[in-house]
Design a protein that fits this description.
- This protein is 94% helix and 0% strand.
- By secondary structure, the protein is mainly alpha-helical.
- Helix 2 packs antiparallel against helix 3.
- The relative contact order is 0.03.
Length: 160
């Protein structure tokens, strides 16, 4: 009538009844509920961390875009500054060349004036020497000395 399978079933039912009487199923249910809460909390924290990461990513992308824009502005400003400096340098170079040209022209003019003055002085000296020689050979005495002195004074006055 009762075989081993029936006795095993009866033993299982008794075991489950004793376990139920002592509240093991409640403890097991509490354990599963706590584990569910832990998993739920972990999922909540994961969602929160994901949201924070997305916000941080958006912030860094905005900062990167701003930095790229700032870098582009700096490059544009540097290019404009370089162009302005090139124009200024060209103007300064042209001014320097003009000033140096004027200086050289002034030196050339001074050298010409000095050369002309030197030629005039030489001409005066030669004229005086020639006049002196002519007057020595042709005029003698006090008259010659007077004529020579007047001639020298007049020649110097005219040529200077």
């Amino acid at each position: 009538m009762l075989d081993n399978t029936t006795w095993a079933f009866v033993g299982l039912v008794l075991f489950l009844a004793v376990v139920g009487y002592f509240g093991v199923f409640g403890l097991f249910a509490k354990f599963l509920d706590k584990r569910g809460e832990v998993v739920s909390d972990e999922l909540s924290q994961a969602r929160q961390l994901r949201q924070e990461a997305e916000a941080l990513l958006a912030e860094y992308q905005a900062k990167r875009a701003e930095a790229e824009k700032e870098a582009a502005d700096i490059i544009a400003s540097a290019e404009a500054e370089a162009a302005r400096l090139a124009i200024d340098a060209k103007a300064a170079l042209e001014d320097l060349i003009a000033r140096r040209t004027k200086t050289v022209e002034a030196r050339i003019a001074l050298a010409e004036a000095n050369a002309v003055a030197e030629v005039k002085a030489k001409a005066v000296d030669l004229a005086v020497a020639a006049a002196t020689d002519i007057l020595r050979t042709k005029v003698h005495g006090d008259v010659a000395a007077d004529l020579i002195a007047k001639g020298i004074d007049e020649a110097k006055a005219r040529l200077n």
